[in-house]
Amino acid sequence: MEAAAVVDETCAAFGRLGTLEPQAIHRFIVGQDRAPRTLSRDEAAAELGDPFATLLLLQAVFPRSAEAVLGAIDDATAGDDPLRQQMSFLVGEGSQLPDPEIASRGLRFLVTRGRSSDGAELIISVFDPEQTDGVELMAWDPVRGGFNYYRTVGDDGAWVFAGNSIQAVLEPTEFKGPFESHTSGAILMKELKTPWVNWDSPAATVSADIFPAGDPRATHSFFLNRERQGAITCEAAVARPSFARWARARLEAVTSDDGTVERPQRIVDQLLATRTANLISSHAESSIVASVPVDLPVTFFVDADGLALVGLPIPSEFKLDGSIYAEAIETLAVHLDDEAGFEQPGDTHFAFVVPERAAEDQAVLAQALQVGLVSDRLAAALLMVDFPNPIFSPRREALLAHVPAQAQITDGASTFSDELANAIVAAAEASPEGSPEREFAGLWEVGEGWKEAFGQTLTAYYAAIEGKLTDQAAFDDWVRLAETRRARFRQFRISEFGLLLPRSNVPAAERRMNPDATVSEEA
Amino acid sequence: MALLDHFATPANLPEPNQAGVDEWSKVVEDLVGVFAGQFEQFYDPTEDDTPADAGVEVVAWRAFPARLDGLPAEERWERADSSRAEQDEYCEWSVERDGDEVTRVTFTSEVPQYFEHLHDRDTVEGTERLLDFYREFVDPETDPGQLLVASGRYDEQNPFNQSTSGRLAHLTRDNNLFAAIALAASATVLRQRNGVPVTTQQALVRCARLGNHLRHSDPQIAGAVNRHAAQGREITLRDPIGVYIAGIELAEMVAPDGADVADFWEVERGEGDRILRASFRVPEERGYTVSNVELAGTPIRFGAQLAERVEVKIEAVAKAAGHQTERLPCRPQ
C-alpha cells in the first residue's frame, strides 16, 4: 500500500512520513519512491541481502530501538557469530565543555556489530539506546554490495529501507534522502583523524560527568563498555575499512563485464568537486594555545592526502607560535555559540577546526588509480589546478564539464585519462585567459616531467607558508579563509549542531588562498 | 581486596623464592610509599585498605608517539623507527629485517627496574636469570659482561638495548616505573587557573607540569586520575603494578594468502591482556614476511606502522574517600 506522496527530497522527508505499520518492512527511497510503501516478503527478500534484513526483518522480527536490534541479533545468532562482536563509540559537539546542562552538545552513540579487515557489518547511530524514532542503521549487503540504509519512523519504531549505497551515486536518487549526507554512499565519521575533535578518544576522554544528573545513558552499556581507544578504533576498525570496501564494491558495480564504466563523471566529481568534507584540527587544546606551538593542519593548505597518492611532495608540518594564534582568536572574536543560549569566548576544544577534503573522496581516487581508470598523471594535473584551495574550488569543479560520458577499462588500463585531458586541453583554446582549462592545459603539457615540475611548484608554496608562520596579519587572513570554508561546510546537511564549528566577527565573503600563501577576498 | 599483602612482579612473572618476591615488593613499595606520603589522595595499598567496591579504571593509549601524529605517514614512521628516544609512550619497539624486508617487530613495556631486580637477585643467589632472559629473548650470544657497567651494576642501556633494530630488551629513559607512578600520584592534585578548574587533559598536564602535553600517555593518565580525585576519591595503581601492552588492532591488516593475521602476533611475556613483550612475525612456513602484509593498503615497511595499532595501558584503582581538597594554582611554567 502506498501512502500520500512526500514532496521533500531531503533527509528531513523521513520526519514527514506520519504513522507507519511497525510490523512491516517499508521502502522509501527518496527520488525514486513518491511515498513510503510496504514491501511484501518476496519483494524485501529480493532487494535486501544484509544481515539486519535476513536475520530479523525477513523473519518478521521488528525491534524498535537500537538496544532491541542488538538483542534480536543476539537471539538470531550463535555465540561465536562475528555479529556478536560489538563496539560502541561516543561523539558529541562540545563534549569537553564541563557544564552538563548544555543541551545542544548532541551526544550520540555509534554502535557496530561484526568485525573484520573490511570493517563492521552493521552500524547504528542513536542519541539514546532506547529511542524508537530516528534510529539510523546501515548494514553491509554482501549480495548487492554496499550498505543498505534503514531508519525508524515514529514512536512505534517502524523500519524504513531508505536505499543502498549505490543509489547515492546514481540518478535519480543521488544527493537525496540519506544521500544528502552520505553523498557517495559511504559511512560518516566527520572528524576522522587525530585528535578526532568531538569524539571520545584518548586525546580527549569524555567523562560520565557530562550527562545531566540521572541521565540513564551515563550507566548504559553503550557508554560503560565503549571502546577505550574510542575514535582511534572507530577510524581504524570501522570508518577507513568501510570507505575502502565500498570504493572497491562501487567500482565493480559501475563497471560492466566488458569494462564499460557507467557515469565516470560521478567518480571524477569526487576528485574535483566538494560535496562533503571531513573536519581536521590542530593537536593543541585551545585553552593552552597561548603558551604552546599550534600545529596547523596541513590539509588546510593543500590536499596532502590526494597528492601523496600520486607521489607528490607533501608538507611535514606548519607550526605557528601560540601567541599569534591567541591574538587572532581575540581580534576576530572567535567564540562558541550553540544558537540555543550557550555562548563562550574562544575556540573549539582542539584549536583550528577546518574542513578538509573528504576521506571517502580519497578512497574513491585510490580505487580509481588502482583499477587503472585514472592515471597518476591525470590525477596529479587535476589536483594541481588551484592547488592552494584543496576544497571548495570552483576552478577545479569547472573542469567537470569536460568529463567524457563513458569510460572503458581493459586489462587494468584505460584511455579515459587521455580522453579527459584532451577534452580539457581542446576547450582551453577557446577559453579566456586565466581559465581553469588553460591552467590544466599548462600542467598537462609538462608531460613526463610532471612529478618534478609539480613538486617544485608545491615546494615553493610550502616555503611561502613557512615564511608567513610568524606573520600575525597573514595568519589573521588564514583564519578569515577558514571562516569562509566553515561557512560553506555549514551548508552541508552533516553540519547539524551549533557547537560543531566556532563563530567569529569575520564578515561573510568568498576568499581563496594564493600560491604565495596570501589570501584574496572576492566581493 | 582489603590490605594488599605485597606488590607482585609485573604480570605476575615467576619469582623463584620468597626472598625474591619480598625484594621486588620492596622496590615497588619504596616508590609507592614516597608518593603516598606526599599526596593526600594517592595511597599505598599495602598500608591502606582497598575495599571490594573500589573501581578499576583502565587507562589506555597507543604505542606510537603522539608528538609525531601530525606528520605525513612515511616521515612519521621513519622517525619513530629511527631512535628509541622517539618512542616515549611507555612502549618501545625494534625491527628485524632481511634486506629491506621486515621479518619481525618486537614490542616491550617491561620496566628497567625489573631487570635491575633480576641482576640484584642474581648477585645474591648466584643465578643467571638476567643473562638467561637476554639469551632467550634478545641475543643468544649475549656476553654477561656486556650487560654491566664498570662498577658491576646493570646497564639498562647496554649495547643490546639501545637500538631500534634487532630484538630489544626493555624500556629505557623516562619510560619507567618511577615515572608512571609519579605521574599517577601527582595527578591527584586538583588545579585551577584564575579560579577556573583545570580539567581538560592537555591543560592539566601543562598546569601541573605532569609531563608532555603532546603525548598520548601523560595527558590520558593525568586526566583519568584527576577526574577521580575531583570526586574526592583516593587512587593507586592496580597490582601487579606495571605498564602493559593490551593488544594490537588488526583491522585493515591483510596477509597476501588471506591468513588470519592474528596468528602473527605472539605474546612472549605476560599473562592475559597484561602483555609485557610481544612480537609480530609471519611463521616461516608461509614463505613471506611482515613486509608482504598490508596495513590500510600499504605494505608494512616500518615497525611504527604496527605501533600505531598497539595499545598500551595502566590500571588505576579509585576508592571512595570523601576528600574535599582545595584546588591549587598552576605550577610556575
Strand content of chain B: 15-25%
Number of strands of chain A: 18
Helix/strand order of chain B? HEHEEHHHEEHHEEEEEEEHEE
End-to-end span of chain A in angstroms?
Answer: 53 Å
**Estimated structural class of chain A:** alpha+beta
What's the alpha carbon Rg of chain B, rounded to whole Å? 21 Å
Q: Which bin fits the share of residues in helices of chain B? A: 25-40%
Strand content of chain A: 5-15%
- Fraction of residues in helix of chain A: 25-40%
Average pLDDT of chain B, to the nearest integer? 95
Low-confidence stretches of chain A: none
Query: Which two chains touch over the largest interface?
Result: A-B, 42 and 39 residues
How many individual helices of chain A?
Answer: 15
- Give the class of chain B from helix and strand content and strand pairing: alpha+beta
The biggest beta sheet of chain B is recorded as:
4 strands, antiparallel
Largest β sheet strand count, sense and barrel closure of chain A: 8 strands, mixed
Shape of chain A: globular
Overview of the molecule:
The complex is a heterodimer of chains A (523) and B (333). By secondary structure, chain A is α+β, with helices and mostly antiparallel strands. Chain A has 15 helices and 18 strands. In chain A, the strands form 6 sheets. An 8-stranded mixed β-sheet of chain A has the order 2-1-8-7-6-5-4-3. In chain A, a hairpin with a 6-residue loop joins strand 6 (136-140) and strand 7. In chain A, helix 6 packs across helix 9 and helix 8 packs across helix 15 (472-490). The radius of gyration of chain A is 24 Å and the shape is globular. The model of chain A has no long low-confidence stretch (mean pLDDT 95). By secondary structure, chain B is of the alpha+beta class. Chain B is built from 8 helices and 14 strands. Chain B has helices at 18-38, 73-82, 112-125, 129-138, 177-186, 201-208, 217-230, 303-307, and strands spanning 55-62, 92-98, 101-108, 191-193, 196-197, 234-237, 244-248, 253-254, 265-271, 274-281, 294-295, 298-299, 310-319, 328-329. Classes of the chains: A alpha+beta (523), B alpha+beta (333). Chain A binds chain B through residues 96, 98, 115-117, 119, 194-195, 202-205, 207, 209, 228-229, 232-233, 236-238, 240-241, 244, 283-285, 287-288, 291-292, 295, 297-298, 304, 308, 314-317, 349, 366, and chain B through 58, 60-62, 66, 69-73, 75, 197, 199-203, 206, 213-214, 216, 219-220, 223-224, 227, 249-254, 261, 296-297, 309, 311, 313, 333.
